[in-house]
Design brief:
The chain contains 15 helices and 17 strands. It is an alpha+beta fold. The chain folds into two domains: about 290 residues, Aminopeptidase, CATH 3.40.630; about 150 residues, Alpha-Beta Plaits, CATH 3.30.70.360. The strands form four sheets. Strands 1, 2, 3, 6, 7, 8, 15 and 16 form an eight-stranded mixed β-sheet that branches. A four-stranded antiparallel β-sheet has the order 11-13-9-14. A three-stranded antiparallel β-sheet has the order 4-5-17. It starts with a helix and ends with a helix. It binds zinc ion. Zinc ion binds next to loops.
């Protein structure tokens, strides 16, 4: 009899759980709004491609050490842009900051409105000499072939500089006058941290009392097949960005002859500390990823929706699955990456010091102080000292909520220009120039309206970087629309 009761209770419990799971799953996806695409806008993409190609041919490679930067290409690029967009350069206020970063201002008709800022960067990373033979065309040849502009900077991110300038040029020609002021800021050193570019520009604006209503920087693009469980292309709208912390760790010990070693060496003590950090990762936060999947709504495959809608039951499985892939693992926690380890000078000498660097990418909400405290607890060894490396520590940027008008307007513009693409909030795993503006702007967004696939991701900073001419043309249309939409919006 008791067995039957237990069985009945069990069956009822299972049925109830199944009902809760199905109800929660049904409520999980947010609806994807239909939007009017408006009239089709024409753009001479071939001509834009020629102008981008000319910019790609100028190797504006930045370098950590200022004295190693060749200033000539930067001079040439600024001169080229001025020749390509004379109307923009004569209509906007133009200034250079620290010689090669560009700040432009298009005055609005209503001076009481906070301005917006569109930013991108003029510099590129070098092409690794060891890989030159594997490029289809030389990295700085700026060739147009098979419907693509090829070369360093096509994806990261002269395309965005050109698309913004094209859009402003077209709007000027159409007689458009913005209500709110529009800043364009193109830094010359984003790839090496943006200290002389974006940071200096942000400081300048702050000193002038400027507060920005919203900012758009380079960011997520529109990718097919990179979000697990989603087949359609997704527009990754970067509303969050991780922080950064490089911790230097060191252990000091008595130097001596290796024939009479102590129980524990400096190397051994430090190696164990690093091992403990790798074995005890920082806590997982699923909320950012859940928000992205909710926005992707019905395009997410059913099992994924069910699992994410019912974390009370499936959080273990979800975490295991996400942690198995380095990309998704990085989206749900502060990552721990030992990147340097130095010690010793000779094979028979006990080193007096061992040093290492561990690089953390901070999940929004995990502060530098929090991570230092966790590191101290995990290592739990007073012989291991540590401190942040100079200029290699900053907090995660403030998150721009998806119900902000700036975000909503951006998402609507994406749907208008790319009706087959679903926009979703996204956390940038790397750093962009946008972080430097956090002090003067509450709505930081990062997006590059460029279509691509998994393969294209490997080309950024890699081999055969390229952008399709068609995609470049759409970028121009996108910026024309966004500039008008943010101007109209009640930001
Ligand atoms: Zn970039």
């Amino acid at each position: 009899m008791i067995a039957i009761i237990i069985l009945v209770v069990l069956v009822v419990a299972i049925i109830l759980a199944a009902v809760v799971v199905m109800l929660r799953t049904a409520q999980f996806p947010l609806p994807i709004d239909e939007v009017e695409s408006g009239e089709v806008e024409m753009v001479d993409a071939a001509a834009v491609a020629q102008r981008l190609a000319a910019a790609v041919r100028i190797p504006t490679v930045s370098h950590e050490k200022l004295e190693l930067v060749d200033p000539e290409p930067f001079d040439l690029l600024l001169a080229l842009l001025k020749t390509q967009y004379p109307h923009v350069f004569s209509s906007l206020l133009v200034e250079t900051v620290n010689t090669h970063s560009l700040l432009m201002f298009w005055k609005g008709s209503e001076s009481e409105l906070d301005p917006v800022l569109y930013t991108s960067h003029l510099d590129v990373v070098p092409a690794d000499p060891a890989t030159l033979e594997r490029w289809t065309v030389p990295p700085f040849s700026g060739e147009i072939q098979d419907g693509f502009v090829w070369g360093r900077g096509t994806q990261d991110i002269k395309s965005q500089v050109i698309a913004i300038l094209e859009a402003v040029n077209d709007l000027l020609n159409s007689g458009f006058t913005p209500r709110r002021g529009i800043f364009l800021a193109f830094g010359a050193d984003e790839e090496v941290g943006g200290q002389r570019g974006a940071k200096a520009i942000a400081k300048l604006l702050q000193d002038r009392g400027v507060h920005l209503a919203a900012l758009l920087d380079e960011g997520g693009s529109m990718l097919e097949g990179v979000i697990p469980g989603v087949e359609l292309p997704v527009a990754l709208l970067g509303n969050a960005e991780k922080g950064y912390l490089s911790l230097k760790l060191w252990v000091e010990a008595n130097p001596g002859h290796s024939s009479t070693p102590p129980e524990e060496s400096a190397i051994g003590i430090l190696a164990r500390a690093i091992d403990r950090l790798e074995q005890n990762r920082l806590p997982v936060h699923l909320e950012v990823l859940v928000e992205m999947y909710r926005a992707l709504g019905p395009t997410v495959d059913f099992s994924m929706q069910m699992a994410l809608a019912n974390l009370w039951l499936f959080s273990g499985i979800v975490k295991r699955k996400l942690l198995a892939n380095p990309e998704t693992a990085a989206s749900i926690r502060t990552t721990t990456a030992p990147t340097l380890f130095n010690s010793g000078i000779k094979d028979n000498i006990l080193p007096a010091r061992a040093e290492a660097v561990v690089n953390f990418r901070l999940f929004p909400g995990d502060t530098i102080a929090d991570v230092c405290e966790v590191v101290r607890r995990i290592i739990n060894d007073p012989r291991v000292a540590f401190e942040p490396l100079e200029s290699a520590a900053w907090e995660a940027a403030p998150v721009t909520e998806v119900d902000e008008t700036s975000y909503q307007t951006l998402a609507t513009t994406v749907r208008q220009v790319f009706p087959d693409v679903v926009p979703a909030p996204y956390m940038m795993l790397g750093a962009t120039d946008s972080r430097h503006y956090a002090g003067i702007c509450d709505n930081l967004l990062r997006f590059s309206p460029c279509l691509g696939d998994k393969d294209d991701l490997t080309r950024v900073h890699g081999i055969d970087e390229r952008i399709s001419v068609e995609s470049l043309g759409q970028m121009v249309v996108f910026f024309r629309k966004l500039i008008r939409a943010w101007d109209d919006a009640g930001l």
